[in-house]
Structure formats: structure tokens, C-alpha cells
Amino acid sequence: MLSLVIVIVLSYLVGSFPTALVFGKLFKGIDIRKYGSKNLGSTNTYRVLGWKMGALVQVVDILKSAAATLLISKLFYGALPFENRTPFEDITVVQIIAGISAIIGHVWTIFAGFKGGKGINTAAGLLLSVAPVDALIAISIFIVVLVFSGYVSLGSIAAAFAFPSTMFIRENLFKVEIDGYHTLIYFSIAVCIFLIYNHRANIKRLMYGEENRFERWWKIRWIKIEAPFKRKK
């Protein structure tokens, strides 16, 4: 029990590392929470500090959950303090728990008043660790939506939805055997709902045509996305 608690706490603390906040102050001397969307994610970092700093923040945020999943989980020893009803070995369950703890840490970081990022990058690190094929397909969909729309938030929402959808299609339509599918599919749906919930403000802005668009990344413009609603003036 103690080793699992240690894994959860350390994973949460690693996930809690406020990458955008620390790098903003360290390299640019600014508190990124006072600029742009005020979010501690890579998208706001791109917008405020430029693509190089944004890319650095993105990579580190992905590595946080990957480190929790692949490294910190190794501190676990003994047996799980609960019955393992999944088809996975105990250590795989611990890896998933560690990754989830890192995501929670990123979204509700103890080092920045429990206000962090939206969890897309840290979720990507976890999903790449447990289901790399499905995660890579979801990332590809994110890129496609981004270049067609210019909206990072829309790409993130599409990728979140695509992950469980891809897993379901591969297993049930293409008959690809995915280890632990009947456990992972519920886990992936939960992650999808969590990530979309964290983007609820973005969804509202998209609906009203008020979401910020990255013109530099909007490469294919022959499809025009219209906001379904307009605010009354």
C-alpha cells in the first residue's frame, strides 16, 4: 500500500511541475498566467512566448506523464491493495494510475494555486505509453484538424474523441486484437470525457465564433468553419 501511495504522490508532483510558468519566468522574465488565455499549457505558451518555447513546454509536459508511467511506477513493489479485475499485470495497472496522477497534477498543480493546463499533452504521454497506435492516430487527427481549421482547441477535442473511437473501430471492425481492450476502452472514454470537459470554455467560444485561431498553422483554407451561434449585440 505504501509503495502505491508513494507512486501516486510522486507522479502527481511530477505532473504538477508548472512548465509554462517556470520557463516563462526563467527565460522571458514574465508570469504567463497574466497573458493570453492565462492558461499554463503549451498553446498559450506558443501564443505568448513563441513557437520555440511552446514546443519546449509541450515536450516537457508530454514527458511528465511518460516519466510517471514508465519510471516512477517502478517504485511500486508487492501486491496491489485491491483486487485486480483487469486483464493486465499489476505493474501495468500501477503505470496507468501513475499516468493519471500526473495528468491530475498538471491540471490542478499544487505549485500554481491548483490551476494548470488542460491535460492534452500529459494525457498524450500516458496514452502513448499504454496504447501507442491509437494515440498516434489521435495525434494525426489533431494535426489534420489544426491545418484545416487553425484551432488548436478544436484539434485537441477531435483528438480526445478520436482516441476511444479509434480503439473501438480497430478492435470491432478491423478485428485487431488489442491487449486489455475491454479495460482500456472504458479508460479511454473516461480520458476523452475529462479532456473535453476541460475544454468547455473553448467549445463555447467556438460555438460563438470567438475562439482564437492560429493563422500560422491554418494551412488549408478551402473549408470554412462557421460558428453555429452568434451572440446578440
3D structure, described in words:
With 233 residues, the protein is mostly helical. It folds into 2 domains: 1-105, no CATH class; 131-233. It is 63% helix and 0% strand. It is globular, with a radius of gyration of 18 Å. The protein starts with a helix and ends in a 26-residue tail after the last helix.
List keywords for this structure.
single chain; 233 residues; mainly alpha; 2 domains; 10 helices
Shape: globular
Structural class: mainly alpha
Low-confidence stretches: none
Residue share in β-strands = under 5%
Helix share, percent: 55-70%
List SSEs in N-to-C order: HHHHHHHHHH
Please tally the β strands and state the result: 0
Biggest sheet: strands, sense, closure? none
Kindly provide the radius of gyration, computed on alpha-carbon positions and rounded to a whole number of angstroms: 18 Å
Number of helices: 10
Mean pLDDT: 93
Count the domains: 2
- Distance N terminus to C terminus? 58 Å
